[in-house]
Amino acid sequence: MSSLTHCLSLAVALTMTLPLQAAEQVLFSFDDHSIPWHHNLKLTLETVQKHPDNPVLRRGPPGSADHGHAILYGTVMKQGDTFRMWYLGMHETEIKAGQAPGWWRPMCYAESKDGVHWTKPDLGLVELNGNTKNNVCLIEGEVFSSTRVNDFLSVLHEPEDPDPERRYKCAYIAHMPFDEVKGGRTKIGPNEKRWGAMVCATSADGLKWKVVGDHPANAGGERFEVSSLYKFGDFYYGTGQLISPWSWRPDGSDIGRDMLAYRSSDFVNWSKAKAFSFARAGQMANPPVKGQQMHMGAGIWNRGNVLVGLHGMWQDAEQTPPKGESWNYGVRVDLGLLVSNDGIHFREPVSGFKVIPRGKDGEWDDIAILQGHAFVNEGDKTMIWYSHWDTGSKLKGMEIGLATLRRDGFGYLSRKVPENDGHFVTSNFDGSQEIALNVDGVTAEVPLKVQLMDHLDKPLEGYEVAITKNGLDEVIAWPKPLPQGKKLALRVFFPEKCEAKVYAVYVR
Length: 508
Prior knowledge:
2 helices, about 500 residues, mainly beta, globular, disordered N terminus, 8-stranded mixed β-sheet
């Protein structure tokens, strides 16, 4: 069986046989909307562990689609027993005029059984360097320049879509010649020869794509550097970055790179109006913190009731670049945590905390870090893929690495003052069949205590249980069935001397 046939068969089989996940609400410890009520508790965020074999996906040999670089301006998801990765390659080995030659970085595809060891199948879809033996996905469209991915790529899988040709959706940046952008633009910002276009495409298998329509999603508006695509509630959202003069602070004053959101109910027609989604704390201060910006929106993990993301914590170079160096020589970027409960507005649980810090001097990822839409819960770990960006434009170490956390272990709640007890109360949820905890540090001698509450914060009689076991998904064994058709909440009590760490509550 050819590699392409294998990939097609895998995609079709998954679309037909994978069941929809059971409804689950994840109430993360760092989400102060899901767990708003705290007494004597503190939040501790965790930094990832980087894989010892990093980078786990490296650039290819001369002549390959990713010989220049392989970066996770892209997506990783697991389907069946296979990890699937879409990333951006660059077959040239030199940046020219600040861009990839030809304004094209091909959409490349890779597979893995463990998320560490990756293969790049010969898809046979796109001719490059005289042959089609490469892992480049095919994108077709009415306007050729709209098919040339050049920046951030986000892939969404919707197996429930009734149209098989739309079960994979993506959004990416193409820098189209402006005279090829049907629909024009507003008068906001200067004239440009090439335009930051948000292009949407659909696919039956994730390998062969067709551009939606004959114009970019942001046609008729301003340039836009889209960096994420997700469905939340009734809308698809495309979030990404802009900068003044195309974007500004709420009072109209200039701002560096910030995060904006467009929306669409059908993935065809997109809003011209956009929402201000996120800017770093220093960008909103008066005066703003010099050189602080937010880079490329957020890499998003949609958990159904909440969005978790990683954003680029950009800091300008301390000094002007030496003569002959790139304009962004010396820029440094780490990755921080974001959360959203409405799909529109994002916030940092702890301002400035680095979930994935760039490496130490001399390590492969020591300059700047790029986020992707690349989160998978596998066994007892949350796996997160990311890549390195050489802001000096020498393409040093621009490959893809893997980092891990305890499963859903971005952070935990624990007691703040040792001599005092503590507790939290969740927001209200509908009557459920099962509630579980992601918890560590409890003992039989000093257990956690959980109690079911009504919507008025009153305890329900007969629903109090001691938690004596640690685990990633410790189901609470209530003495009787949970009430149905009522608004409920969970109270988690930390007695004195209790060293418990609660990472998340699961409501199913």
